[in-house]
Amino acid sequence: MAKLRGRGYASVNYPTGMNLGGDPSQALVHATTTGTFVISLSSVDLGQGIKTIAAQCAAETLGLPMENILVDTADTDTGPHCMGTFASRGTHRVGNAVIMAAAEARGVMLEVAAEELEVDAADLETDGTGYIAVKGAQDKRVHITDLALAAHFKHGRTISGRGIYLKEPSVPVPETGEMDPDSCQAHACTVAVVEVDDETGVVEVLELFNAYEIGRALNPAMATQQVEGGAWMGLSHALFETTEPYYPARDHGPRDFAGYLMPGPADLPVQHSLLLERPSANGPYGAKGIGEMTANAPIPAIANAIFDACGVRLTSMPFTPERVLRGLDALKTEETC
Amino acid sequence: MPSQIVSLVVNGEHREFIAAPGATLLACLRESLGLTAAKRGCAQGACGSCTVLVDGRPEASCLVAVETVAGGSVRTLEGVATGGDLDEVQSAFVDCFATQCGFCTSGMIMVAEALLDRNPDPSEEDVIEAISGNVCRCTGYRPIVQAVLEAAARRREEAVTR
């Protein structure tokens, strides 16, 4: 009886976005009287961080601080259109739409600043601190708070912008099957180190090494968190989660959370994560989608590590102690035959 | 059995409300008092998202019949910050990226508060033990464990400087 250690790896290529009847998302931007730029979206943030990414894209494009950006995703009935935050499309589609909207708003902002400062708009620049200044004459400047007030009450201008990103549907060429279903692809590799107890069949994941090529990482801390949280979910699928342990029979399926197994905080591997940045040509500031792929590679990597550790090749999830022990028994039977 | 008036000390304030027979502490906090930080996840005590402190102890408020704690003291996430100032646990959760969707966060913070109240210098194992009744589906737990350890360190530092 022993604890057998093994290592396995798996890779994933993951497309950003989808290819049904076209894949659009819109963004609208407008400045309030005090210079807060409201980004109106129907793109729901359920914890993945699209509001942060949208605010970063807007702040960068407008040349203003993050504090001047307010992302409003309040109502998908009345807001601009979004297909939804799925298919790892949020950062790419919404980011691009926000950049387009913010670029138009920036144009108006500079026009109004040119009127206010009585200069040519082409001579103006922003430095990210909230001021719009004449290039080479930093004392000739106006703060966005004052400028937005002036736009409303003095110039009668609306500082706003519209943005949309559309990935058009791609129909396969009948002869060749050639098509362009996605906008870009992210790539990743996971190496899993596991320990298999050949007496109990329990698999413990000791370490995960995650390498992700995701274009430009717009927010590296959030991207890393997505990688490691997603790896947890992959590990959970690989070893624990199922509603039908004897599929297609429904026997012994959990009926509530008390019987539905998931790894807890004591079951976590040490994770080492690395982001490789090769900017995508059509991504917002070079970003690609990273959402769903983070749960993908850990699962086959763990399956391969189990095979490496004890020779058992499992093809059905989850890799429960029972399946491992049945696999070990089958190997013994083969040996004795 | 008729509804009855129940009084509790919630986040230091005396509160009275009418509770239907068998009403849970969670339902009363959310529906009678408008304190919605504690979440109804599984409603069977398995996920921890409804955790509040009852007389200092973390409890799954979805399982507590409110009559059984009448007259007691309840602390919820709403009572943790002082005005707009986050406490050490809350700010460590922000700084360590320990939240994503946020559904587990209020429960996690309440069990962390209870842990640090009784053990100002917990080991990593102590933290894991403390949060093991709380489910998180986003973070992979590691940032939460780190946040609680960080909060403990900050609180000890505060105690020294005070």
Could you explain how this protein is built, in words?
The complex is a heterodimer of chains A (337) and B (162). By secondary structure, chain A is α+β, with helices and mostly antiparallel strands. Helices cover 30% and strands 25% of the residues of chain A. Chain A folds into two domains: 3-15 and 183-336, 2-Layer Sandwich (Aldehyde Oxidoreductase, domain 4); 23-167, Aldehyde Oxidoreductase, domain 4. In chain A, the strands form three sheets. Chain A has a four-stranded mixed beta sheet. A four-stranded mixed beta sheet of chain A has the order 4-3-2-8. The longest helix of chain A is centred in the N-terminal third of the chain and has 28 residues, at 90-117. Chain B is an alpha+beta fold. Chain B folds into two domains: 4-79, Ubiquitin-like (UB roll); 88-161, Orthogonal Bundle (DNA polymerase, domain 1). Chain B is built from five helices and five strands, in the order E-E-H-E-E-E-H-H-H-H. Chain B has helices at residues 25-32, 88-95, 105-118, 124-131, 142-161, and strands spanning 4-10, 13-19, 51-54, 57-60, 73-75. Chain B has a five-stranded mixed beta sheet with strand order 2-1-5-3-4, sandwiched between helices. In chain B, helix 2 crosses helix 5 (142-161), helix 3 packs across helix 4 and helix 4 (124-131) packs across helix 5. Classes of the chains: A alpha+beta (337), B alpha+beta (162). At the A-B interface, helix 4 of A face helix 4 and helix 5 of B. Chain B: Residues 4-80 form the 2Fe-2S ferredoxin-type domain. Chain B: Keywords: 2Fe-2S, Iron, Iron-sulfur, Metal-binding, Oxidoreductase.
